[in-house]
Design goal:
mainly beta, ten-stranded antiparallel beta sheet, four-stranded antiparallel beta sheet, 2 helices
Length: 240
């Protein structure tokens, strides 16, 4: 992940976050008569694996925060088509306020985020689109995901994925804002693309996603107004 920020006419140097790896153990627990799968998960390890380009202070901070996620656990119920019907995450002991806020948002998003398959049978070249709201404590946005089935053989196949997110102007509820300080989101746009190689006998696909987000907000504090723009690039890889 890399992030560049500007406040008014002042541009901050780009910050590079080191590559981090989180290991999660997933256990399929039961399947209902309707075909809904209940699984549990627990984060067994989290570490910085590549510090290239990142400052030592950033690396140290990330290592400290990542260690706090170890032991985070929960469960989810998923329908045969891939909709997450219900989910829960347990906050690990010693979690910071920032981490608790992140987990609270993730708990909400788990119930909203899905990669549903079409109801009808499809073959190579099939395309479908899923649009859904994503609401967190901080803001509300709309996500649209487009899928294309590019390969299929037996239980294995490949999906091409495109994702976009958009948010309207709104008041933001950011944690740790000083008293008398407010934040207004002026715009948020996210574009992402990637692929997922799935095996229908496994709960998690092998996937990659390259994501770019641009966000503009206004901070008001002590009678002064400051415009802040943030650009982020994130690369995500999942290896089951």
């Amino acid at each position: 992940m890399s992030m560049a920020m500007s406040m008014g006419a002042i541009k901050q140097p780009e910050t590079v976050l080191p590559v981090a790896r989180t290991t999660m153990e997933i256990d399929s627990k039961s399947v209902s008569k309707e075909g809904n799968l209940k699984y549990t998960f627990i984060v067994s390890s989290a570490e910085v694996v590549d510090e290239k380009g990142a400052s030592p202070l950033v690396v140290q901070t990330m290592q400290t925060e990542l260690k706090k996620t170890v032991g985070m656990s929960g469960w989810a119920i998923v329908t045969p088509r891939g909709f997450t019907e219900d989910a829960e995450i347990n906050v690990p002991d010693g979690a910071s306020q920032q981490l608790q806020q992140m987990i609270d948002n993730l708990r909400q998003q788990l119930k909203q985020l899905s990669s549903p398959l079409p109801e009808e049978p499809v073959g190579i070249g099939a395309k479908w689109k899923v649009t859904m709201p994503l609401n967190t404590d901080a803001l509300k946005l709309i996500q649209t995901a487009e899928y294309e089935l590019t390969e299929i053989k037996g239980n294995k196949g490949k999906l091409a994925i495109k994702v976009s997110q958009f948010a309207k102007k709104q008041q933001m509820k950011l944690p740790n804002l000083p008293p008398g300080t407010s934040a207004t989101l002026n715009s948020l746009k996210t574009k992402a693309s990637g692929s997922a190689m799935f095996d229908l006998t496994l709960p998690v696909p092998k996937s990659t996603l390259n994501l770019e987000t641009s966000m503009a907000m206004t901070i008001k504090a002590q009678g002064q107004t400051q415009d802040v723009t943030t650009d982020m690039k994130i690369d995500i890889e999942i290896h089951p």
